[in-house]
Amino acid sequence: MLTQLLKPRGTALALAAVFLPSVLWGALTGTVKLGDPFPDLGPFKLEGKLPEALPGKVVMVDFWASWCEPCKQSFPVMEDLQKRYREQGLVIIAVNVDENREDMESFLKKNPVTFTVVRDGTQKLVEKTGIATMPSSFLMDQAGKVRFVHSGYRGDETRKTYQKEIELLLKEKPHEK
């Protein structure tokens, strides 16, 4: 399974997963690329309740796992972004890739959030998007097109980048790109 392949097995692999450049990541993986429409989440039978009204919203889909140290750092930042920009039209959906639901639930007890969390127990969405690093996120404009892709989480640098990109997308009219 993907989670077994991605679990850090030592410092070198953990650092590679965190700092793998996005350019290399994009070149090696994924069928979803910048400018593509993000796949409709409905057919993937994700565990959990998805938001109903996504058209016209700026959407971040973040893939994460309970064993991922950078994911633990990114959750409070995404929570802050969701609270700050929710009223302006931001929706954050965190997609868990853990093999065991209990691992996800334990993580969420320690890291509660108000944004949507679902689980890709079948790994079908992970496969479709070509996720290779935890966390990885896609930021879509109001028309549902992927405008930004992030691989890994680099603390304040990533937080500032998320904020800048979200503000840019929220200011756009749906027909602007």
- Low confidence ranges: 1-29
Portion in strands: 15-25%
Number of strands: 5
Which strands sit side by side, in order, in the main sheet?
3-2-1-4-5
Count the DSSP helices. 7
Gap between N and C termini: 37 Å
Order of helices and strands: HHHEHEHEHEEH
Shape: globular
**Averaging pLDDT over every residue, what do you get?**
83
The largest sheet is: 5 strands, mixed
Work out the helicity level.
25-40%
Structural class: alpha/beta
Model description:
The protein is 40% helix and 16% strand. It has 177 residues and is α/β, with parallel strands linked by helices. It contains 7 helices and 5 strands. Strand 1, helix 4 and strand 2 form a beta-alpha-beta unit. It has a 5-stranded mixed sheet, with helices on one face.
Can you give me a brief rundown of this structure?
The protein is of the alpha/beta class and 177 residues long. The chain is built from 7 helices and 5 strands.
Which labels suit this protein?
single chain; 177 residues; alpha/beta; 7 helices; disordered N terminus
